[in-house]
């Protein structure tokens, strides 16, 4: 996982078996950085209360997280990771 800032948003880029996915870095349960948690398969677990999210779909997969994360289109082009983010 790598935390980045793009278009004024803090994002989390995750490598799942060589495929890259990008979600918001902040847990929807309580404002904690998911970067401080861990990636297990295609799920990131928040270090604060253990909520989990699917980084491919953004879906909350374990309580106390209930609200999905925003996902961002992520592609590899010319060995670069490109993320489609709308600016505020």
What would your notes on this structure say?
The structure is a single chain. This protein has 88 residues and is mostly beta strands. The chain has one domain: Rieske Iron-sulfur Protein (3-layer Sandwich). It is 0% helix and 47% strand. The protein contains no helices and ten strands. The strands form three sheets. The protein has a four-stranded antiparallel sheet, with no helix packed on it. The protein has a four-stranded antiparallel sheet with strand order 4-5-6-7, with no helix packed on it. Strand 4 (38-40) and strand 5 (43-45) form a beta hairpin. The two termini are 24 Å apart. The model has no long low-confidence stretch (mean pLDDT 94).
Backbone structural class: mainly beta
Assembly state (oligomeric):
single chain
- For the termini, the CA-CA separation is 24 Å
CATH class: Mainly Beta
Strand content: over 45%
What's the CATH superfamily, by name? Answer: Rieske [2Fe-2S] iron-sulphur domain
Shape: globular
Tally of separate domains: 1
Radius of gyration: 12 Å
Number of strands: 10
What are the low-pLDDT stretches, counting only 5+ consecutive residues below 50?
A: none
Helix content: under 10%
CATH topology descriptor: Rieske Iron-sulfur Protein
Brief overview, please?
The protein is mainly beta and 88 residues long. The protein has a single domain, classed as Rieske [2Fe-2S] iron-sulphur domain (Rieske Iron-sulfur Protein), CATH 2.102.10. It has strands at residues 2-6, 9-16, 19-24, 38-40, 43-45, 52-54, 60-62, 71-72, 74-77, 80-83.
């Amino acid at each position: 996982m790598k935390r980045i800032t793009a278009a004024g948003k803090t994002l989390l880029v995750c490598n799942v078996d060589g495929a890259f996915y990008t979600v918001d870095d902040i847990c929807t349960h309580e404002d904690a950085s998911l970067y401080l948690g861990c990636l297990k398969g295609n799920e990131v677990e928040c270090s604060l209360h253990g909520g989990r999210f699917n980084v491919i779909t953004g879906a909350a997969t374990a309580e106390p997280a209930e609200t999905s994360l925003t996902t961002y289109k992520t592609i590899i082009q010319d060995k670069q990771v490109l993320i489609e983010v709308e600016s505020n």
